[in-house]
Write a structure and sequence with these properties.
With 206 residues, this protein is α/β, with parallel strands linked by helices. It has two domains: 107 residues, Rossmann fold, CATH 3.40.50; 94 residues, Rossmann fold (3-Layer(aba) Sandwich), CATH 3.40.50. 38% of the residues lie in helices and 21% in strands. The protein is built from eight helices and seven strands, in the order E-H-E-H-E-H-H-E-H-E-H-E-E-H-H. Strands 3-2-1-4-5-6-7 form a seven-stranded mixed β-sheet, with helices on both faces. The radius of gyration is 17 Å and the shape is globular. The termini are far apart. The structure holds glycinamide ribonucleotide. Glycinamide ribonucleotide binds next to helix 1, strand 5 and helix 7.
């Protein structure tokens, strides 16, 4: 079996800029990386990240509820696309749409997400301004397995980004994004190589 044949097949979901997606694609271009990126799905036709994925020769698909109707029907269309790519792992990278319970259960243990806070702190939106307002000492980012609850599920890894005097939402966001770009390729490699698995984490926490 060639090395490439042993690599996990990864689909990335985006809604916008796609800077985390870009880091994952660049990492997966490295010969020793344990995953390859087989496709990018967006719920937005104008997601900027789609351009980079296409330039890299990666398949892209726009799947939105505008075309497919309800959440469950849309998620079924997503599952079909993933199956046609033989995807093993899904990376949510700035995918700003909640997936259905059915979808999360079907792909349980195979979906990972990056979130710009030290979960379980600051689930949801506007994490940087909320961290500043709360005057926390440390902020940061988390990669975690996705379950049906928003920004929930066992953590794979976190990077702490300490707050600095005079931080604004923008300055903090900039530093956290750099941390995200380091964390996500590492976290995907852990999952793709089997070093970290949903089954083991959930078992260990019982
Ligand atoms: C990232 O900061 C990511 O953590 C966040 O959206 C941004 C996407 O940037 N995701 C969430 O807030 C999900 N809850 P990117 O498109 O440049 O990767």
């Amino acid at each position: 079996m060639s090395k490439k044949a042993g690599k996990k097949r990864v689909a990335i979901f985006i809604s916008g800029r796609g800077s985390n997606m870009e880091k994952l694609i660049r990492s997966a271009n490295e010969p020793e990386y344990p995953a390859i990126i087989v496709g990018v799905i967006s719920n937005k036709t104008d997601a900027k990240g789609l351009e980079f994925a296409k330039k890299q020769g990666i398949a892209t698909a726009i799947i939105s509820s505008k075309k497919h109707g309800g959440k469950v029907a849309t998620d079924e269309a997503i599952s079909k696309q993933l199956e046609s790519w033989n995807a093993d792992i899904i990376c949510l990278a700035g995918y700003m749409r909640l997936l259905s319970k059915e979808f999360c259960q079907k792909w349980q243990g195979k979906i990972i997400n990056i979130h710009p806070s030290l979960l379980p702190q600051f689930k949801g939106l506007n994490t940087h301004s909320r961290a500043i307002e709360a005057q926390v000492t440390n902020h940061g980012c988390t990669v975690h397995f996705v379950t049906a609850q928003m920004d929930d599920g066992p953590n794979i890894g976190q990077i702490i980004v300490p707050l600095q005097n005079g931080d604004t939402k923008e300055s903090l966001e900039k530093r956290v994004l750099i941390a995200e770009h380091n964390l996500y390729p590492w976290a995907l490699a852990q999952v793709a190589s089997g070093e970290i698995s949903f089954a083991e984490i959930t078992q260990a926490s019982k």
